[in-house]
Design brief:
Layout (H helix, E strand, L loop, with lengths): L1 H39 L3 H16 L7 H41 L1 H21 L3 E9 L3 E10 L1 H10 L3 H27 L4 H17 L1 H13 L8 E4 L1 H33 L1
Length: about 280
């Protein structure tokens, strides 16, 4: 009876996770767009115009309003709002994720494995498509001020595409395999195990992923983040800012580990039950 009640509740919470994840993604993209607008306002020509108008504003003793300054202030205000909203919705996702894990665990290992895996797929999806890192390269020029030379916002899949385009095909394939395909197949397989836990095939799946899981996730995750960081153009990276995609992917790594342990314990209990018979 408890499982019949918990199943639709857990499914509803996973749907809520997806909704808030979409909101977080939308705000992250708007933050990216507002940052790009600000970057465009800080190229050499527009920065020179901005400085000229700033001096004119000072000399006019406030009678002349620098519209460039007003525009930048509006962009910065929108940028801060979108960043704050993206973080807020991400916190909602993580809060619901914790509730799902606790509720599913109390309901039993089978529900924990299945719904933990389903929640892991949600955060994995946003971890792959949401920006992980923004990299800005800028330089201080005399009389002109701070000039932005380049700006890039990177998601994990976006970095794979860039590495492929730059000719780093082997590196791109390694990241694609162990940070995208293996996590996806692994999670779907563990959810399948929860459905057919009595079959011998289920034991083979868990054993296989226990072997490769020891090195396929955390180590490659660190490598993937470093490569995302290093794919910036130029050598003078002035500012790198972590974005919410990193938190989504990190959440997947930990939830995936818990689901793997849960599947192992679940099948162990099945084996013990068979031995007692």
């Amino acid at each position: 009876m408890k499982k019949k009640i918990m199943t639709p509740l857990l499914l509803l919470m996973v749907i809520m996770m997806g909704y808030f994840g979409l909101q977080a993604y939308a705000q992250a993209k708007k933050y990216e767009q507002s940052t790009q607008k600000l970057v465009m306002e800080k190229d050499v020509s527009k920065q020179s115009e901005y400085q000229a108008k700033a001096w004119l504003e000072k000399l006019s003793l406030g009678h002349y309003a620098n519209e460039k300054r007003l525009l930048r202030e509006a962009i910065i205000k929108a940028q801060e709002m979108h960043r704050s909203e993206a973080k807020r919705y991400t916190l909602y996702v993580m809060g619901i994720l914790v509730v799902i894990l606790i509720a599913a665990f109390l309901a039993g290992l089978r529900l924990f494995t299945f719904f933990g895996g389903l929640a892991a797929l949600v955060v994995l999806y946003f971890g792959l498509f949401t920006p992980l890192l923004t990299v800005t390269i800028h330089k201080e020029l005399e009389y002109i001020g701070d000039v932005v030379l380049s700006f890039e916002s990177k998601s994990l899949l976006g970095s794979v595409v860039k590495l492929w385009g730059n000719g780093d095909i082997v590196v791109a394939l390694v990241i694609l395999l162990f940070s995208v395909l293996v996590p996806l197949i692994k999670t779907l397989s563990l959810m399948f195990v929860a459905v057919v836990m009595e079959s011998r095939f289920a034991h083979g799946i868990v054993k296989f992923f226990k072997v490769i899981g020891k090195w396929s996730m955390l180590d490659v995750f660190v490598v993937a983040v470093l490569l995302v960081y290093l794919t910036g153009d130029g050598s003078d990276v002035s500012h790198a800012e972590v974005q919410i995609g990193l938190y989504f992917f990190l959440a997947y790594v930990f939830v995936s580990m818990l689901v793997s342990l849960s599947a192992d314990k679940m099948l162990e209990s099945v084996r013990e039950g068979e031995e007692e018979r």
